[in-house]
Amino acid sequence: GMIVESADLYQTMKNFFEQNDFSYNRKFLEKASIDYVYIAKNEIDKPLDMKNNGLDIFFENNEVIIYKVL
What is the pTM of this model? Predict the structure, then answer.
């Protein structure tokens, strides 16, 4: 697994959710061995771009969305 300092992780997640660099996002998910991304809908500014991030919807309801990393 990948161990990152809190500040680095915060910046990495911020970068990820800004949805600007999809190549970076896919590499991050792969390197960090992330299989699912769990998001509370009231915490995101814009939805994740599933196609460009290599994600698929695993579960969704009114409050949360869980993406599976493809």
Answer: 0.80
29: amino acid identity, one letter: L
User: Between these two residues, 4 and 37, which has the higher pLDDT value?
Assistant: 37
Tens of pLDDT, residues 35-49: 999 999 998 877 889
**Per-residue buried b or exposed e for 29-56, using 16+ beta carbons within 10 Å of the residue's own CB:** beebeeeebebeeeeeeeebeeeebbbe
- CA of residue 70 relative to chain centroid, distance: 12
The tokens for 25 are: 């996002």
